[in-house]
Write a structure and sequence with these properties.
By secondary structure, the protein is an all-alpha fold. The protein is built from 34 helices and two strands.
C-alpha cells in the first residue's frame, strides 16, 4: 500500500503515535512501554513480510509479491528505479533524497533512541537501584518491560542492518553502543546457572553479536570492501582486548568487562557461543578475501591494504584459537567450520607452491610457505594439538550415545575428525609425525593410560588412513614403515588390558582395519585373538563389547584368510563353547550369526584338510541340530508359536551363516554333513509353516544349499515348495518366486521334476493374493467415497 501511495507516511505515523510522549518529564510508564512494545512488534511483522518473501508466497504469486516487497524497501531506503534492462531484468536504482532524510534513517534513529532509554534497565547496578527505590509489583514490571524493549530494539536493528544503507549504522555512536552491549554479558557458571535464562545484559550481548553478524554477511562488490569493514569494526582487536585482563573476575567478585573467551563460566555461555559464531563468520569472510585477492602477494611488496589484511588475519587466528580451545563443545563447535575453511586455504597455498616449482619436496614447500605474509600452514602444528585436546572426552563421559548430550559430544568430535582427515590429505608426513609424537607421549603402561587420552589417540590412528592418497588409504599407508612401526608398538603393548570398554573396542577396530600388517607379523596374532575371544572381548561383561567383538572377529577372519590356519582349533573351540553356553555371556541373535559365519570361514577358507573340515563341522553342527530337535519336541511349541518360531528361525539362520565358509566346489564329504541342515530345516518348516520368519530363514538356507549341495538339494525341494507356496503371503511371495528362479537358473532342465508339482499351485497362489489385494483396495476406496459423500451431504444440510 505504501508503494502505491495509499498511505503516504505509515512509518512516521507509527513513530508519532506510538513513540512521541506528551509527558514533559518523559518518565517511563507502563502505558508508554506498551506503546513502544507495539511499535517494535509492528516493525518486526512488517520486516518479516517484506524481507522473508517466501514465508507466505505461493509459486505463482511469489514474483509479484517479491517485486512489491522490493518497491516497499526502496521507498524506505529513499531509492527509485531509474530503468530496467528488458533482457536481463536487472534494475538500476537511484537515490531520491539524502540517506539521512530517508524513512530508514528515522527507523534506525528510533531504535537507537529506545536502546538509549532502556539500556540502563539491563545494567545490574542500575536495575538494583530501581528496585531499591520502590519494591512493588509495578516497579518489577517496569524493569522487566524495560529490559525487553532494550533487547527487542537491538534485535530489530540487526534485522534492518541486512538491507538498509550501511552508512546509517557504521558510525561511531551506533558502533559504540553495539560494543557496549556486546561487552556487557552477564557472568556464567554457578552464579547464574547455564541452564537458566540469560539475564538482560547477556541478551543484549547476544543481540549485538547478531548485529555484527548481519554487517559481515552483507554482500559487497569490489576488492577489499570486507577488509575495510573489518578494519572499521575493529572486531578482533576489541575481542582480544578483553582477554588481556587478568582473570575473568574482579577482586570484588564481579565479572570484568567483555566476553571472556579464556575463563570458562566467567561469561554466560550463550554470549560466548554468540561471539564464537561471530568469530567464525568473520574469519570465513576474511579468508575468502585473502584467497581471492591477496594469496599471490609476497612479503617483499606489501602495501597498506595488505598490511591491514595480514594484521587482521593474525588477530583472527588468536580469536579463533581462543574459541576452538574453549572447554564447551557449543563454543568450540561454532568455529569448527572456520577450521575446515582453513584447510581450503592450505590447499590453495600448496597449489601456489606447485605453480612456483613443480619439483619442490615437502621441506621446500614448508620453507616457501613460511615466507608468505600469512600462511595457514604456519598454524597447523597448533591446530593439530588443539584438535587432539578437544577430541578427548571428559573424564566422566558415559559413552551412551543414545542420550542427547552424549550424542552431541560425538557429533562434535566427528567434525573434528573430518578436519583431521582433510589435513592428512594435504600434509601426510607432518600429520604422521604428529601422530607418532602423540602416541609416544602417552603415559605407560598403556593399560593405565587415562581413557580420554588413549581413546583420542586411537581415534587419530584409526582415521588416519581416511585422508591418505591415493585410495584405498589403508593399503597406501601400510607401505609406510613409520606407520607400520606405530602399529607394531601398539600391538606389542598391553593396551588390550585397559579397563575401559571404549578403548578395547577402538583397539580392536584399529587392529581389524590394519589387519594386513598382521600377515607380516604373525607373532602378534595370538595375543590379539586371545583378547578378542576372551574376557576382554567375546566374554566381556558389557554387552556392547561382546557385540562389537563378534563383528570384528568375523571381519578379521575374512581379512586374514589362510593366515588363520594355526588358530582354527583354538578359535572354533572357544566360539563353540561360547555359543553353547548363552546364559553365562548372553549374545544377541544377530551377533550369534556373526559367530556362526566366523566358524564357517575358519573351517572352509583357511586351508583345512577335508577330514578336518568334516570333523570340526560335525562337532559344531551336532549340538546345534540337537537343540533344534529339543525345541521341536517341546509341548509348548503349538501353544506359543510366536516365541518358538523366533527361536527356530534364528537357529535355521545360524546354519545358513555357517555354510557361508564353503564354496561352490564343496567336497562330497562336506556335502553329506551339510545335507543334515536340509533335513532339520524341513522339520522346522513342517512344524511352523505359518510363521513368516521361519519361512524366510528356511528360504535363506535353501539358497545357500543350492550353492553348496548342487543337485543334491533337488529331491527335497518339492516338500519345501509345497509348504512355502501354501503359506506364503503378499510379504514373502516374492522370496518364493526368487527361490524358483534360482532353481531354474542353476539347474535348468534337471530342476523340472522338482518344480513340476509347484508351478500350478504357485500361479494359483499369486492369483489368489492379487484378488485379495484388489478386493481390499476397492473396499477401501468405496469406504472413502462413502465418507466423502456423507461429509458433503452433512455440510449441505448444515448450510
Amino acid at each position: 500500500e505504501n508503494s502505491q501511495s495509499s498511505w503516504m507516511n505509515p512509518f512516521d505515523d507509527l513513530i508519532q503515535h506510538l513513540l512521541t510522549s506528551t509527558d514533559t518529564n518523559n518518565t517511563p510508564t507502563i502505558q508508554k512501554m506498551i506503546k513502544e512494545d507495539i511499535y517494535l512488534r509492528t516493525l518486526d511483522a512488517i520486516h518479516d513480510e517484506i524481507v522473508n518473501t517466501t514465508t507466505n508466497s505461493t509459486r505463482t504469486t511469489a514474483p509479484m509479491m517479491m517485486m512489491n516487497d522490493t518497491n516497499i524497501k526502496d521507498v524506505i531506503r529513499g531509492l527509485s528505479v531509474a530503468f530496467t534492462n528488458q533482457i536481463t531484468g536487472e534494475s538500476k536504482v537511484t537515490p531520491t533524497l539524502p540517506v539521512q532524510d530517508t524513512v530508514s534513517a528515522r527507523l534506525i534513529s528510533s531504535l537507537i533512541s529506545l536502546l538509549q532509554a532502556y539500556r540502563p534497565y539491563c545494567n545490574e547496578d542500575e536495575s538494583n537501584n530501581i528496585q531499591q527505590q520502590q519494591q512493588n509489583n509495578t516497579t518489577r514490571l517496569l524493569l522487566k518491560m524495560g529490559q525487553s524493549i532494550a533487547v527487542q530494539s537491538l534485535n530489530m536493528l540487526s534485522k534492518f542492518i541486512s538491507w538498509v544503507d550501511l552508512s546509517l549504522v557504521l558510525n561511531d555512536v551506533i558502533l559504540s553502543y553495539l560494543w557496549d552491549c556486546l561487552h556487557s554479558a552477564g557472568i556464567g557458571g554457578d552464579d547464574v546457572g547455564q541452564e537458566e535464562e540469560a539475564d538482560g545484559n547477556t541478551k543484549l550481548s547476544i543481540a549485538a553479536s547478531k548485529c555484527f553478524n548481519e554487517l559481515l554477511s552483507r554482500g559487497m562488490e569490489g576488492c577489499g570492501r570486507k577488509i575495510d569493514l573489518l578494519v572499521r569494526l575493529n572486531l578482533f582487536q576489541e575481542l582480544l582486548a578483553c582477554q588481556e585482563q587478568d582473570g575473568g573476575l574482579t577482586t570484588e567478585g564481579r565479572k570484568r568487562r567483555g566476553v571472556d573467551l579464556k575463563t570458562v563460566d566467567a561469561t554466560h555461555i550463550e554470549a560466548v557461543i554468540a561471539v564464537a559464531e561471530l568469530v567464525n563468520l568473520a574469519g570465513i569472510e576474511l579468508l575468502s578475501e585473502w584467497d581471492d585477492n591477496f594469496l599471490s602477494c609476497s612479503s617483499s611488496n606489501m602495501d597498506q591494504v595488505l598490511l591491514s589484511t595480514v594484521s587482521l588475519l593474525d588477530q583472527m587466528m588468536k580469536s579463533f584459537f581462543l574459541c576452538l580451545s574453549y572447554d564447551d563443545i557449543d563454543v568450540s563447535g561454532a568455529v569448527v567450520p572456520l577450521a575446515l575453511r582453513l584447510t581450503v586455504t592450505m590447499g590453495k597455498e600448496l597449489d601456489k607452491c606447485k605453480a612456483a616449482d613443480n619439483n619442490q619436496d615437502d621441506s621446500n614447500n614448508i620453507q616457501f610457505l613460511s615466507s608468505l605474509p600469512f600462511s595457514a600452514f604456519n598454524h597447523l602444528p597448533r591446530l593439530l594439538s588443539t584438535i587432539y585436546i578437544q577430541m578427548r572426552y571428559p573424564a566422566d563421559f558415559e559413552f551412551d550415545f543414545e542420550e542427547d548430550e552424549d550424542a552431541e559430544e560425538e557429533l562434535y568430535r566427528a567434525e573434528l575428525r573430518k578436519f583431521y582427515r582433510r589435513v592428512v590429505s594435504l600434509y601426510p608426513d607432518l600429520c604422521l609425525s604428529f601422530l607418532g609424537n602423540t602416541l609416544s607421549s602417552l603415559s605407560t603402561p598403556l593399560s593405565t593410560t587415562p581413557t580420554s587420552d588413549m581413546e583420542a589417540s586411537l581415534r587419530l590412528l584409526y582415521h588416519h588412513c581416511e585422508g591418505i592418497r591415493p585410495p584405498p588409504g589403508t593399503k597406501t599407508i601400510l607401505r609406510n614403515e613409520t606407520f607400520r612401526s606405530l602399529l607394531v608398538a601398539l600391538h606389542s603393548s598391553d593396551v588390550s588390558h585397559h579397563s575401559h570398554r571404549e578403548v578395547l573396542m577402538l583397539y580392536y577396530d584399529v587392529a581389524t582395519r590394519y589387519s594386513s600388517l598382521l600377515k607380516d607379523h604373525p607373532q602378534l596374532m595370538p595375543s590379539l585373538l586371545d583378547s578378542m575371544s576372551g574376557v576382554r572381548g567375546l566374554q566381556h561383561p558389557h554387552p556392547k563389547v561382546r557385540s562389537r567383538s563378534c563383528y570384528l572377529l568375523l571381519k578379521l577372519v575374512k581379512d586374514m584368510g589362510q593366515n588363520m590356519r594355526p588358530y582354527v582349533e583354538t578359535a572354533v573351540g572357544g566360539i563353540q563353547s561360547l555359543i553353547s553356553n548363552p546364559t553365562a555371556f548372553p549374545i544377541q541373535p544377530d551377533d550369534t550369526l556373526y559367530l556362526f559365519e566366523t566358524i564357517g570361514l575358519l573351517l572352509g577358507k583357511t586351508g583345512l584338510s577335508v577330514p578336518d573340515q568334516r570333523r570340526y563341522l560335525t562337532a559344531v553342527m551336532t549340538p546345534h541340530v540337537q537343540s533344534i530337535n529339543n525345541v521341536l519336541q517341546s509341548p509348548n511349541l503349538r501353544r506359543d508359536p510366536d516365541e518358538y518360531g523366533t527361536i527356530l528361525s534364528s537357529s535355521v539362520a545360524a546354519l545358513a551363516y555357517l555354510s557361508k565358509g564353503f564354496t561352490r566346489q564343496t567336497p562330497p564329504e562336506i556335502q553329506e554333513v551339510l545335507f543334515e541342515t536340509v533335513k532339520i530345516c524341513l522339520a522346522v518348516l513342517q512344524s511352523l509353516p505359518e510363521h513368516e520368519a521361519v519361512r524366510n530363514k528356511c528360504m535363506v538356507l535353501l539358497q545357500r544349499m543350492i550353492q553348496c549341495l548342487k543337485e543334491g538339494v533337488l529331491p527335497s525341494m518339492p516338500s519345501f515348495l509345497a509348504l512355502l507356496i501354501e503359506h506364503c503371503n503378499a510379504e514373502d511371495v516374492l522370496d518364493v518366486s526368487q527361490l524358483l528362479n534360482q532353481l531354474c537358473a542353476k539347474f535348468g532342465p534337471i530342476a523340472v521334476p522338482a518344480l513340476d508339482a509347484a508351478a500350478l499351485p504357485f500361479l494359483r497362489k499369486c492369483h489368489s493374493l492379487v484378488t485379495t489385494i484388489s478386493s481390499s483396495r476397492n473396499h477401501h476406496n468405496d469406504e472413502s467415497s462413502c465418507n466423502d459423500s456423507n461429509n458433503g451431504s452433512g455440510g449441505g444440510g448444515a448450510a
